[in-house]
Design goal:
Blueprint lengths: L3 H4 L4 E5 L3 H18 L22 E7 L2 E10 L7 E7 L5
Antiparallel strand pairs: 1-2, 2-3, 3-4
Length: 97
């Protein structure tokens, strides 16, 4: 049995979603994971807008890429009242090779 991953090495990397476009990509990835893959019903969610949370406004959002394809996102929220508290959410898509 062959492993398709060995045929095409990938370059996984993570970077901060610094622009509005990169943040939109993260929100669209959330949509793909939660609505399309996990079949969750989320009121008002649309594929082109993705899923954006009110806490995202002040969050650090990271995007993980397999080559140039976004495949994972992590959202980090430090609560203003208590900097010791952090909320971490992550999403990733299933990759078929």
């Amino acid at each position: 049995m062959s492993d398709d991953r060995s045929a095409r090495p990938t370059k996984f990397h993570v970077r901060t979603a610094a622009t509005q476009e990169e943040r939109r990509v993260a929100f669209q990835l959330r949509y793909r994971v939660f609505v399309e893959e996990l079949h969750r019903e989320i009121a008002g969610a649309r594929p082109e807008q993705g899923i954006e949370e009110p806490s995202d406004e002040h969050a650090t959002i990271l995007l993980g890429y397999d080559g140039d394809m976004p495949v994972a996102t992590v959202t980090i929220n430090a609560l203003a009242e208590d900097r010791k508290s952090t909320r971490l959410n992550s999403s990733h898509v299933k990759r078929s090779r």
